[in-house]
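Lab manual, section 2.4: Encoding a predicted structure.

Procedure: take the sequence of the chain (322 residues), apply the prediction step described in section 2.3, and record the output as structure tokens. A sample record is shown.
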Amino acid sequence: MALLQLLFLVLISLSSFTFATRTLNALVEDPSSQLQYHNGPLLAGKISVNLIWYGKFKPAQRAIISDFVTSLTSASSSSMEPAVSTWWKTTEKYYNLAKSNKKFTNPGLSLKLGKQVIDEKYTLGKSLSQKQIITLASKGEDRNAINVVLTSSDVVVPGFCSNRCGSHGSSSLNQLNSKVKNSKAKSYKFAYIWVGNSETQCPGYCAWPFHQPIYGPQAAPLVAPNNDVGLDGMVINLAALLAGTATNPFGNGFYQGTAEAPLEAASACTGVYAKGAYPGYAGDLLVDATTGASYNAHGANGRKYLVPALFDPATAVCSTIV
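Recorded output:
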């Protein structure tokens, strides 16, 4: 069973800028080594999630992602349970746990949808390096923000579809602009995320369970809740990376294993979406009676989403909301 489970995990691609996506490791059983806090800073206060759209995305596709980000806050989310905002509350437990460290004075984290930047002309080409991903991320805000780069299905990124579906990390201003002379500005770090649309390149790898898997048990794919396999897959990966960014933004927050290949809040639970999950089976999900779509969370504007299980530091198990 453990061997099959490895087939649904994605390697962490780590550069000097990138911390984590999914990984081919598994949680060890010793609770003392599970997602330890490494005493680093966590994101604090009101943080804008800025979306940088690179390549061709339809307005309806952009709405799927922007509504998901809006859904993370209870004030803007659906009143129906289980809700995306309820799922996100698990990350608060990490902040509460960190407060046991006397040096930790973080007031908590509140996310909101920020600005959106649209680049439909492929200004950096259709093959992007990690450095170019960071350049695109810099088009968002550089303070109190998570800048999310979303690449369209015809954009190639190193490692995409072979060992990762997205990544998160941080960059300092001097890495973005060597001409910055303010020493304080040089030392400032901002968090970023990259997620690719796998619709044409590897939906069986990055959009499972909404597409037949490339490896492992060949169960029938589920119906995507927003009727877009690529974008619904992007939501899953974005959700996982947002959780990783909140709890390990700079590589010294909560994780298990080495800093070069950390397991984080969501990557520790890859392939689990509801109770009863096992390799090749996402779990006992909710099903829309009209469309037949599978989901586990309600979101803003009547949306339904599939979000990954998160490792609950209070119970030391992968926590699902259905």
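Check your result against the sample. The radius of gyration is 18 Å.
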